[in-house]
Amino acid sequence: HHHQQPHRTSYHFQPPKNWINDPNGPMIYKGIYHLFYQYNPKGAVWGNIVWAHSTSTDLINWEPHDHAIYPSQPSDINGCWSGSATILPGEKPAILYTGINPKNQQVQNLAVPKNLSDPYLREWVKSPNNPLMAPTPQNHINASSFRDPTTAWIGPDGEWRVIVGSKLDARGLAVMYRSKDFVKWNQVDHPLHYKDGMGMWECPDFFPVAKTGRKGVETRVYGSQVKHVLKVSLDDTKHDVYTVGTYNWQKDIYIPNKGSIESYNGLRYDYGKYYASKTFFDSQKKRRVLWGWVNESSSVDDDIKKGWSGVQAIPRAVWLDASGKQLIQWPVVEIQKLRNNKVKLTNEVLKKGSIVEAKGVTAAQADVEISFKVENFKKAEILKPEWKDPQLLCSQKGTSTTKSGSVGPFGLLVLASNDLKEYTSVSFRVFKGQHKYVVLMCSDQSRSSLNSNNDKTTYGAFLDVDPTRENLSLRSLIDHSIVESFGIKGKGCITARVYPTLAIGDSVGLYAFNNGTDSVTITKLTAWSMKKALIN
Ligand code: DQQ
């Protein structure tokens, strides 16, 4: 099986075959986690979209169920697109989702469980009132850009609110609706938020985060204890960007923090491949959990040959950083249940050009944490003012020995073949900026595969950390064709898809390296083989 399908994942969520995209309606109900997702029952490319459904008690092992929502009424006959779940009072889940009607217009529909005593919520009934929100000649909504309702929240006035992603010309819009009964929805005369020049806002997500601590809060919470986050998925660049700000429920407006960047260059959940994500409040563990779709980087022909496309990233707990300026993301703790056969290295000095192997792990399927201590920053390269794009900087600077800086690149070589003909490098590099040191994190896929049909774009991010005060730490979740990397305990994330031809199965190595001219010390490296999860 693995011989023929070397790139299928072992602990990342996938159905047995076919195309998947956006996570939909994640929630917890009676102690069971639900994940729905956009799915093509007929093939490995996008189309014929239904809501496939799986449940879990630990967010790691998943059991499949029949499709929950599929075209069956005029308001969704041409497709059941993305949407979200809301838990109504009395523990009653409800799903709002986008349907494509016979005129190929995008409209919003409601579905509720047929039988609340079935903890798996296997059958869903659609409202006879569908569609509940639709473009009309009066409301100036673009019928081909009106989709992806969020989880709704109830205001202190007892009225429900929801936003739907949209655009008018190049203006990204979070169109807002209100309702007293969850069935009759009235459009609010202004959007919750908008921004010119950002294009279509797909899959908006709007939620509060506690100002202090890591605990999540329910979606309806507002006030001085919390900030709000608005995430939008930018159709033009396929990036999930967000701002942190303030929500005024009386005026129903959201105002991003002063100084936040609202554009294609804003804060991203992930600086690699990660899209159409959404969060839910886990009332059992009091945390907010983020799901995101990770598309392939292989060719459509290869996708059809392998018979599948798309995985879901490992769910991440999210909370507000102490700075109040950004989110921190970390894989849910449950993933640690899969850790096995720990190997460890401590206090290992890496001189320029050194490579050490973390022997004894199944490196195709591993979880690794490493932290580096830099002795001397004095010779750090000066960051030129024009070096503003971290992705460009990573691809220009590379990670090879010929392009070494003084402080870095150092990091991990993952999914590496024995002869190092193939590897993906995840690394740090430190620069001297105007008033502070600047830490660059890179995930370089350029050497990841001998197969040239793959997209091997290098990804990069600047991380908000003072490297003189904190060791530079990195965690990577490696799973055959995906590498999810978390820099500085979740301050910056980069997810990459790679398709090695040599570094597969047992022929995979995991290494730490330093290509900077100055030595660095690995204070600690811990790597685990990962067990296979039971998925679908
Ligand atoms: N995917 C869905 C849309 C959404 C897009 C269609 C984002 O609802 O806007 O499959 O990936």
Automatic annotation (TrEMBL):
<dbReference type="InterPro" id="IPR018053">
    <property type="entry name" value="Glyco_hydro_32_AS"/>
</dbReference>
<keyword id="KW-1133">Transmembrane helix</keyword>
<dbReference type="Pfam" id="PF00251">
    <property type="entry name" value="Glyco_hydro_32N"/>
</dbReference>
<dbReference type="InterPro" id="IPR050551">
    <property type="entry name" value="Fructan_Metab_Enzymes"/>
</dbReference>
<dbReference type="InterPro" id="IPR023296">
    <property type="entry name" value="Glyco_hydro_beta-prop_sf"/>
</dbReference>
<dbReference type="InterPro" id="IPR013148">
    <property type="entry name" value="Glyco_hydro_32_N"/>
</dbReference>
<protein>
    <submittedName>
        <fullName>Beta-fructofuranosidase, insoluble isoenzyme CWINV1-like</fullName>
    </submittedName>
</protein>
<dbReference type="Pfam" id="PF08244">
    <property type="entry name" value="Glyco_hydro_32C"/>
</dbReference>
<comment type="similarity">
    <text>Belongs to the glycosyl hydrolase 32 family.</text>
</comment>
<dbReference type="GO" id="GO:0004553">
    <property type="term" value="F:hydrolase activity, hydrolyzing O-glycosyl compounds"/>
</dbReference>
<keyword id="KW-0378">Hydrolase</keyword>
<dbReference type="InterPro" id="IPR013189">
    <property type="entry name" value="Glyco_hydro_32_C"/>
</dbReference>
<keyword id="KW-0472">Membrane</keyword>
<feature type="domain" description="Glycosyl hydrolase family 32 C-terminal">
    <location>
        <begin position="334"/>
        <end position="529"/>
    </location>
</feature>
<dbReference type="InterPro" id="IPR013320">
    <property type="entry name" value="ConA-like_dom_sf"/>
</dbReference>
<dbReference type="GO" id="GO:0005975">
    <property type="term" value="P:carbohydrate metabolic process"/>
</dbReference>
<dbReference type="InterPro" id="IPR001362">
    <property type="entry name" value="Glyco_hydro_32"/>
</dbReference>
<feature type="domain" description="Glycosyl hydrolase family 32 N-terminal">
    <location>
        <begin position="12"/>
        <end position="331"/>
    </location>
</feature>
<keyword id="KW-0326">Glycosidase</keyword>
<keyword id="KW-0812">Transmembrane</keyword>
